[in-house]
Write a structure and sequence with these properties.
185 residues, mainly alpha, 3-stranded antiparallel sheet, 2 helices, kinase activity, STE20_Ser/Thr_Kinases, transferase, kinase
Length: 185
């Protein structure tokens, strides 16, 4: 039995040595793989940093281009602003004049404001003056329920250069009669 026991011990000894060799080999492989992994991680980190830097440079370049484009558009817009404003003011002035012509707004300071003129047979113009009663001359609301807000007053003869026969009238007759405000009537 000594021989079997000795063979068994040698077998166990050889198995332990192989296990230690295998463990050392695996330990060495693991350290090699860890070193490769660390190297790969550093390389990937560098690649990612380079790509990030390229991306930020590209984005900064785009932002700078957009900023320059915006600055250029703003400069153009400001240079055209006075032209557009003048065009709008002219358009609004024309619309206002058209509106005033169409609606004949009443202006108490203007001598023929709120008047309607009709040509007379003798070549002069007969002008019917109207007076607006109420608080606001722009609104056609009666100030009193029984009164109209637009009341015709007097006819005024406007002298025409086309009819010289009227100019021979005395000066007192040539002058237009004053337009009353309706309170004297």
């Amino acid at each position: 039995m000594n021989g079997v026991h000795q063979v068994e011990e040698q077998y166990q000894k050889r198995a332990r040595m192989e296990m230690e060799l295998m463990g050392e080999k695996h330990q060495h492989e693991m350290e090699t793989l860890k070193a490769e992994l660390d190297a790969n991680m550093r390389e990937l980190q560098e690649i990612q940093n380079e790509k990030k830097m390229m991306l930020t440079q590209h984005e900064n370049k785009k932002l700078k281009e957009r900023d320059e484009q915006h600055t250029h558009e703003l400069r153009d817009w400001r240079s055209d602003l006075t032209k557009r404003r003048q065009a709008l003011e002219e358009k609004f002035q024309n619309q206002r004049e058209d509106h005033e012509r169409f609606y004949s707004t009443f202006n108490p300071r203007h001598p023929l404001s709120g008047t309607l003129s009709t040509p007379a047979v003798d070549g002069s113009e007969r002008v019917k003056a109207a007076s607006f009663s109420g608080n606001s001359p722009r609104h056609n609301r009666p100030s009193h329920p029984n009164r109209s807000s637009l009341q015709p007053l007097d006819e005024v003869v406007v002298m025409s250069s086309a009819n010289p026969s009227l100019s021979s009238l005395p000066a007192s007759r040539q002058a237009s009669r004053p337009i009353s405000n309706g309170s004297n009537a």
